Amino acid sequence: MTKGTLSLVALVGIIFVILSSVFIVDEREKALVLQFGQIKSVKEDPGLAFKVPFIQDVVKYDDRILSLDTVPTEVTPSDDRRLVVDAFARYRVSDVVQFRQAVGVGGLSAAEDRLEGILNPVIREVLGSDGVTSNTILSADRAALMQRITVQARAKARPLGLEVVDVRLKQTNLPEQNLESTFSRMRAEREREAADEIARGEEAALRVRAQADRTVVELVSEAQKSADITRGEADARRNAIFADAYGANEEFFEFRRSLDAYEKAIRGDNSTLVINPDNAFFDYLKSDQGAAAN
Fold it and tell me: Do 39 and 79 share a structural domain?
């Protein structure tokens, strides 16, 4: 092997060693330098860092706030109304040394399993404590409950090198076996309310209808009364006129009345009468006044 070839191999080896001893820490990460599994240094500031090549290894952990969705957990509040709670947590790796010692080579996957094992018991404990009912969980008061859950979970997750930033309840539902009975009870309640509303509506309609009928009767009675009074006054006026006319000329009155009677008796097809000539019907015609008129 020539001298130039040896120099090139040596140069490549040197470059390889230098590259193996340099690593970059991103601003979103924290890094541990390990030597035979033991922690030698912690790199939290972003930039270039160095390690002993072939002997030391670098393990990086995400320094951002992460989220964890827990499995739905069944809780029993103080009113014994079981609920299924679906929650999520936001957390971050606060102490990489403590985190590495707690979870080992399992990393975030192992940490999330252990964190979920912390969250679910805390959720059941807080939501099942005295004074906490299903209405409290479903109302705006749940914010205080979530704060209690966060505080307790944060204290229990600290030995893992984790900081629990927040715990939130996403959904709160009834267990599947209770849904149908709850829906049936809700339907029965709504049907009862509907029946009450219909009954009240019918009662109000009857009152309005009765009032309208009464008003109609009163109006008709008042109108009939006014009509009778007017008709009576008109009849009285007519009779007075007839009386005045009769008193002014009795002969003319009798003449007109007899003519009206003859007109009504002999009209249309009724032009033949079978009657005794001495009947009073013809008194006016046989009288001197009637003969003079004829």
Answer: no
